[in-house]
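haha ok so turns out i had the wrong file open the whole time. this is the CORRECT one, sorry everyone. sequence first:
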Amino acid sequence: MTIRVVLADDQPLIRAGLRMVIDTAPGIEVAAEAGTGAQAVQLTRRLRPDVVVMDIRMPGMDGIEATQTIIAESPATRVIMLTTFDDDDNVYASLRAGASGFLVKDMALEDILSAVHVVAAGDALIAPSVTRRLIEDFARRPAPAPQPRELPGVTGREREVLTLVGRGLSNAEIAAQLHISPGTAKAHVASLLGKLDARDRIQLVIMAYDAGLVSPSR
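then structure:
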């Protein structure tokens, strides 16, 4: 099945570079281009693409607001946020809006193409430099309550898994730490996604922090 992508960026050169890579890749195509957040919303509403590659800073409706609208109207569409290195203040808001990926514009175009495949498959991806800054942002926030909030329906083992997801561990790493099989770890993550109504691992990370299961010092 071909992955259909909408490119949303107010810089034509950025869109041209992304289109050049995508048009030469098998199994993926550019369905449309948008120069504003409002156009991205309109195109998504009409075309229902699999992925939107979204710039944060655009005239009028910015990428964060556009992402909120897109996720509300088209839950099956995944959004990858594109930003410059100095835009990290918007990382948390973008993830809250429902973005499944967060990449910086100076990454190789091939890496961005790979990210499209990752989020289209239902996973999530954040550039390592952005991950570090996200953790630093959490570090500046007030410390969570000493006792984690209850997570209705989540078992003790699932709470352990959620904590490790919040620390950034992969399924294989979670399996090794808890002495379970990778398949069991994957099943626990899938169960958490369902019970917590989370779109992907990124939302599970946010929930782990919000519940006080993880803090930057742990």
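The first strand starts at residue 3 and ends at 8.
again sry for the mixup
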